[in-house]
Write a structure and sequence with these properties.
Length: 17
């Protein structure tokens, strides 16, 4: 899932906060 990885890198995975 390259899109999910890019999202985590750009937004820092806000759902994980």
């Amino acid at each position: 899932m390259p899109k999910l990885i890019e999202y985590n890198v750009r937004f820092g995975d806000p759902e994980c906060q």
